[in-house]
């Protein structure tokens, strides 16, 4: 599941491929917009907001995409073969390159002035220019009886955290994932740490929270169920929490994150 840092990197790749160039082809392979055609319009820019991507196009239109579970945008040379089957949901091409949106969980075309309807509910974006830790804390505190694990994934509180950063942030702060939001004293430190972890991973693919980029050493708890904690040796626990079916996975160390 792509998290905020991966979506942010994707937006940067789309900007370098599409910004300021006129579309020579658009192909919406979703029923709702199958007849849409953006050919001849210049792409203004692509922004990421939490896990949403907003590609603004000349004429007051915005292409809204979301990577969901395993979506991606690939940039290929013009004329490159498009993979067969139904994996490609959207193609945006100019004279120099072709952007292939594969397995996108959402493809929509809206008026740019209506973007707020899509992303206006989101809390402060951990990687956005308007990141506001105080506002994130304020939103978290509005539901003090909620578990911190669920609250951190709720993009209305703060936007960009998925299951990996949730698990890693809570481990590093020594917080049991089912602890109530209202019982956590230093929420500000918690959200600031999450922000630093995402920001530290902006420049490279993959998620590193230990400072060690070797794949087997990159995380504290995520992907390490049943293996010994790097700090205390307790076997890492794995469980489920929350109600969003794709985002239940939680890993923690019962030694470092006691009840
Ligand atoms: Zn431990």
Automatic annotation (TrEMBL):
Catalytic activity annotation: 2'-deoxyribonucleotide-(2'-deoxyribose 5'-phosphate)-2'-deoxyribonucleotide-DNA = a 3'-end 2'-deoxyribonucleotide-(2,3-dehydro-2,3-deoxyribose 5'-phosphate)-DNA + a 5'-end 5'-phospho-2'-deoxyribonucleoside-DNA + H(+)
FPG-type domain ranges (all copies): 220-258
EC number: 4.2.99.18
Record keywords: DNA damage, DNA repair, DNA-binding, Endonuclease, Glycosidase, Hydrolase, Lyase, Metal-binding, Multifunctional enzyme, Nuclease, Zinc, Zinc-finger
Pfam families xref list: Fapy_DNA_glyco, H2TH
Superkingdom of origin: Bacteria
Domain Formamidopyrimidine-DNA glycosylase catalytic: 2-91
Enzyme kind, highest EC tier: lyase
Sample GO molecular function, one term: oxidized pyrimidine nucleobase lesion DNA N-glycosylase activity
GO biological process: base-excision repair
Family: Belongs to the FPG family.
Name the record gives this protein: DNA-(apurinic or apyrimidinic site) lyase
């Amino acid at each position: 599941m792509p998290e905020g840092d991966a979506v942010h990197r994707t937006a940067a790749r789309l900007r370098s491929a599409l910004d300021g160039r006129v579309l020579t082809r658009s192909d919406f392979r979703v029923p709702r917009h199958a007849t849409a055609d953006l050919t001849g319009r210049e792409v203004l820019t692509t922004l990421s907001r939490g896990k949403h991507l907003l590609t603004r196009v000349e004429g007051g239109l915005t292409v809204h995409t979301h990577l969901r579970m395993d979506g991606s945008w690939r940039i290929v040379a013009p004329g490159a073969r498009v993979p067969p089957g139904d994996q490609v949901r959207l193609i945006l091409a100019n004279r120099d390159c072709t952007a292939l949106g594969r397995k996108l969980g959402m493809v929509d075309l809206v008026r740019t002035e209506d973007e707020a309807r899509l992303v206006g509910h989101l809390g402060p974006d951990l990687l956005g220019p308007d990141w506001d830790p105080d506002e994130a804390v304020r939103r978290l505190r509005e539901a003090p009886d909620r578990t911190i694990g669920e609250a951190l994934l709720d993009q209305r509180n703060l936007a960009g955290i998925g299951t990996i950063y949730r698990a890693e942030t809570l481990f590093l702060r020594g917080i049991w994932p089912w602890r109530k939001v209202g019982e956590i004293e230093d929420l500000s430190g918690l959200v600031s740490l999450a922000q630093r972890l995402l920001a530290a991973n902006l420049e490279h693919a993959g998620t590193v929270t230990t400072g060690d980029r070797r794949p087997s050493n990159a995380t504290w708890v995520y992907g390490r169920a049943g293996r010994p904690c790097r700090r205390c040796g307790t076997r890492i626990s794995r469980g489920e929490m929350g109600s969003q079916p794709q985002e239940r996975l939680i890993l923690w160390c019962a030694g470092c994150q006691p009840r």
